[in-house]
Specification:
By secondary structure, the protein is mostly beta strands. The chain folds into two domains: 143 residues, hypothetical protein (bacova_03559) (Immunoglobulin-like, Sandwich), CATH 2.60.40.1740; 145 residues, Lipocalin (Beta Barrel), CATH 2.40.128. It is built from four helices and 22 strands. The strands form four sheets. Strands 13, 15, 16, 17, 18, 19, 20, 21 and 22 form a nine-stranded antiparallel β-sheet that branches. The radius of gyration is 30 Å and the shape is elongated.
Length: 338
């Protein structure tokens, strides 16, 4: 009998190829089936990215007589959407804020973030994330009338554990927690350019004046803001004693005032303001709005910088605020590019 080696080799190659193809089909089928299952944990998290200050800035339209609703996003991690409703419990978390304050500021408690008083907000005790979804929005109602913005207000939130095990809070603190610094705004508040505002000590008016590149203003009510007098800012422990109130009227006039008689605050000239708008030359959807406060001219006394010594200052010039608004976004707090 003659044994055909070449014929047998061909037959074995066909068998090997068939087995290889079958193995590949089995592997790919197995891989495809794996992707039908959850690859990660369905953790519940806040979407509240931190700034360099360790908090998440949120901007709330100030209204005297009505509430403003801010929608805080919650997200579900994972490779698949959840199949059933989740009832996620939310609470205020002062402990995390206390830790942040000490780690950042140590014993300088005048720099501490203050927990927002419950008279200024209300939150639901839980929020439902519907089955088939991986996000939800939690409504936070703010009523900020009378708030004192010399303090740095923060609303610290946390996702509570669920004893029944129906959901898991994200174990990473920056996802499970939301440290929301509340920044109320009106039509005139924000950070002004101070390069055209001169600050001079009395008797040294001919010397080179003090100039601040930026002057931050804070909301008082719908038509009023305040900033700190002269070169005083948030770094001063006694900053609340040096507030200059700026009230804008409908006819373009500006009234400057102070409620602290120790400042010896005096206005030397009537101020005014103008508003101008211009569309961006490159991005046609972007609106530039400029608010200019003209003819600022006042004087005040810094009575606490040096014990038992009064230092008198003269302040004159103008301030300019620029707001950039994305006209394609309907929500005002989101449209303004902070």
């Amino acid at each position: 009998m003659t044994y055909d080696v070449h014929k047998n080799d061909k037959h074995m190659k066909k068998i090997n190829i068939t087995l290889l193809l079958f193995s590949l089909i089995t592997i790919f089928s197995s891989c495809n089936d794996e992707w039908k299952d959850e690859q990660f944990e369905n953790y519940i998290s806040f979407k509240a990215p931190l700034s360099g200050e360790g908090i998440a800035n949120i901007f709330i339209r100030y209204r005297d007589s009505e509430k403003t609703v801010f929608q805080q996003p919650l997200i579900v991690s994972g490779s698949t959407t959840i199949s059933k409703d989740l009832n996620v419990k939310i609470s205020v978390d002062p402990d995390t804020l206390n830790v942040l304050n000490y780690e950042r500021f140590q014993n300088r408690d005048d720099f501490y973030y203050r927990i927002l008083s419950d008279e200024y907000f209300s939150i639901p005790s839980s929020i439902v994330i519907s089955g088939g979804q991986n996000t939800s929005l939690m409504d936070i109602d703010f009523t900020l009338k009378g708030i004192d913005m010399t303090e740095k207000w923060v609303l610290p939130l946390t996702i509570e554990d669920d004893l029944s095990g129906s959901y898991k809070a994200n174990p990473r603190k920056h996802y499970r927690k939301a440290l929301l610094r509340v920044n109320p705004f009106n039509d005139y508040s924000g950070t002004y350019s101070g390069t055209a505002l001169k600050i001079a000590m009395e008797g040294y008016e001919e010397e080179t004046p003090i100039v601040k590149s930026e002057i931050r203003s804070y909301v008082v009510d719908e038509k009023t803001i305040f900033f700190y007098a002269g070169n005083i800012d948030e770094e001063r422990q006694d900053r609340r004693n040096y507030k200059v109130y700026v009230n804008f009227n409908e006819t373009g006039g500006v009234t400057l005032s102070s409620n602290n008689p120790k400042m010896n605050f005096k206005v030397n000239k009537d101020a005014s303001y103008t508003i101008s708008e211009q569309m961006d030359a490159v991005r046609p959807y972007l609106l530039h709005r400029y608010i200019t406060i003209n003819n600022i001219d006042y004087q005040f006394t810094d009575y606490s910088m040096v014990p038992n010594v009064n230092i008198n200052y003269l302040v004159s010039g103008s301030l300019i605020l620029e707001r950039q608004l994305n006209t394609q976004i309907p929500d005002e707090d989101q449209a303004i590019q902070w």
